[in-house]
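Reminder to self: C-alpha cells first, then the designed residues, so the page reads top to bottom the way the pipeline ran.
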C-alpha cells in the first residue's frame, strides 16, 4: 500500500511544475481548493495561458526542476507574476516505482507547500547574459585548442618537428613558416630566414626540424586548419568585445577581484559571470565554497568520518578557481604559494591546489560582500605561527617517546 506523506502547510496556494521539452505538467494545491493538474505545451502562448490559469487560482509560489535548458523560458514568463524557485532534481526524488509526470508535479507542489524545497541560485538577468558569454568564450577557446592540436598532428605526420624547437606553433616565427609551407616553400634554408628574435640562434635545430616530407594533402590540411583557427579567433574577438561592455559596467568589482594573486582580468570576468557582483544569496563563505564544489564533503556514520572528497558544484566555476590557484602558487612571496608548498608534501598536488582554490573563493566572498580589496597575509606572522605549531608537535612527540 502506498505510503502517504503529509507535511504542515507553509504556503497557502502553490504550484509544482514537471518540465519537458514539449510539455509542462502543472499541479496546484493549497487551502480551500482541490488539487488539480493540467498539461500545457511550451510555446509562448501556451505558457501565457499557464500564467493566467495560475493567477486565476490565486497561486503565489511556483517550483520546478532544473531540467536542461527547458526551464529558462518558463522561468522568464512566470518570474514577473509569481515567486518562482528552481530546485535541483536530486533534491525532489519521488517514491521509487511510482513515477509519472502528474505525480512528479504533485510531489513538487507538496514539497513546496510544506517549505521543504531549497531554491537554486539564479543571478539577475544581466549576469545571466554575461555568464552565457563567458561560457561560450570558454567553449570557443577549447575549440581553438583542438584545432592547434590537429595542426601539431599534421606537422608531425609530415615529419616537420617545428614544435620540438619553438615554444609555441602560433608564435610569429612559427606562423610565418607554416604559411610559407602552405604556399609550397620546402627549402629549410629559406624557411629559416623567417625566424625572428632569439629563434635565429637555433639555426642547426631549425634546419633539421624543417626538413620533412610534406605532401599536397598535408598542405591542404594545414590550410584548412589555419582557416578554422582564424575563424575561431574572429568569433572570440566578437564575444570579447561584447564582454567588455559588461566589464565597463562592473569595472570597480573587476579591479577589486584582480587584487587577489592569481586572478587576472579574464578570470575576474568568469567569476563575475558565475557568481555576480554580490553574494547576498549565500549566507557565508562556506556556502559559496560548497556551491563552487571546492570544499570537503561530509560523510559521517556512527561517529566515523568516511570519504571527504569534494562535493559536486558549479563545474565551470571550479575550473576557473583551479586555474586561478595554479597562477597564484606561481606568484612569488605570497601566502598562497607558501601554503601550497606546505600542503603538497603530505596531500599531493591535486588536493593541494583544490585547497588553494578553496581559500581563493573565500577571499572572493569577502571582497564582494564588503567591497574591499584583497589584503595579503602577514607572512612573517604566518611563518612564526607555523614554527610554534611544529615546535609544540615535536615537543609532544619527544615527551611521548621519553615516557615510553
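Designed residues (404 positions):
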Amino acid at each position: 500500500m502506498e505510503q502517504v506523506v503529509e507535511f504542515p502547510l507553509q504556503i497557502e496556494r502553490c504550484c509544482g511544475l514537471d518540465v519537458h521539452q514539449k510539455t509542462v505538467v502543472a499541479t496546484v494545491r493549497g487551502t480551500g481548493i482541490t488539487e488539480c493538474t493540467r498539461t500545457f505545451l511550451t510555446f509562448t502562448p501556451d505558457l501565457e495561458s499557464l500564467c493566467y490559469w495560475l493567477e486565476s487560482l490565486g497561486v503565489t509560489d511556483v517550483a520546478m526542476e532544473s531540467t536542461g535548458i527547458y526551464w529558462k523560458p518558463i522561468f522568464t514568463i512566470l518570474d514577473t507574476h509569481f515567486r518562482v524557485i528552481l530546485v535541483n532534481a536530486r533534491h525532489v526524488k519521488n517514491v521509487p516505482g511510482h513515477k509519472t509526470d502528474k505525480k512528479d508535479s504533485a510531489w513538487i507542489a507538496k514539497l513546496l507547500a510544506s517549505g521543504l524545497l531549497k531554491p537554486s541560485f539564479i543571478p539577475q538577468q544581466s549576469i545571466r547574459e554575461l555568464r552565457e558569454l563567458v561560457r561560450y568564450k570558454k567553449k570557443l577557446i577549447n575549440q581553438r585548442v583542438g584545432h592547434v592540436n590537429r595542426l601539431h598532428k599534421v606537422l608531425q605526420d609530415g615529419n616537420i618537428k617545428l614544435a620540438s624547437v619553438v615554444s609555441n606553433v602560433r608564435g610569429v616565427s612559427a606562423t610565418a613558416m607554416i604559411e610559407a609551407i602552405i604556399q609550397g616553400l620546402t627549402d629549410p634554408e629559406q624557411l629559416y630566414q623567417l625566424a625572428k628574435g632569439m629563434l635565429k640562434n637555433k639555426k642547426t635545430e631549425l634546419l633539421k626540424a624543417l626538413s620533412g616530407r610534406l605532401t599536397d594533402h598535408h598542405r591542404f590540411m594545414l590550410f584548412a586548419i589555419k582557416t578554422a583557427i582564424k575563424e575561431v579567433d574572429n568569433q572570440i574577438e566578437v564575444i570579447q568585445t561584447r564582454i567588455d561592455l559588461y566589464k565597463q559596467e562592473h569595472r570597480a568589482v573587476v579591479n577589486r577581484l584582480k587584487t587577489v594573486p592569481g586572478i587576472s582580468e579574464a578570470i575576474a570576468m568568469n567569476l563575475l559571470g558565475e557568481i555576480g557582483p554580490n553574494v547576498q544569496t549565500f549566507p557565508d563563505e562556506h556556502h559559496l565554497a560548497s556551491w563552487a564544489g571546492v570544499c570537503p564533503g561530509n560523510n559521517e556514520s556512527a561517529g566515523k568520518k568516511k570519504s571527504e572528497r569534494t562535493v559536486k558544484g558549479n563545474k565551470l566555476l571550479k575550473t576557473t578557481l583551479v586555474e586561478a590557484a595554479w597562477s597564484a602558487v606561481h606568484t612569488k612571496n605570497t601566502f598562497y604559494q607558501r601554503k601550497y608548498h606546505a600542503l603538497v608534501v603530505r596531500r599531493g598536488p591535486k588536493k593541494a591546489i583544490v585547497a588553494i582554490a578553496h581559500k581563493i573563493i573565500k577571499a572572493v566572498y569577502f571582497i564582494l560582500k564588503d567591497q574591499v580589496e584583497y589584503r595579503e597575509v602577514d607572512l612573517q606572522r604566518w611563518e612564526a605561527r607555523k614554527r610554534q605549531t611544529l615546535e609544540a608537535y615535536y615537543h609532544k612527540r619527544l615527551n611521548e617517546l621519553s615516557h615510553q
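The mean pLDDT is 87.
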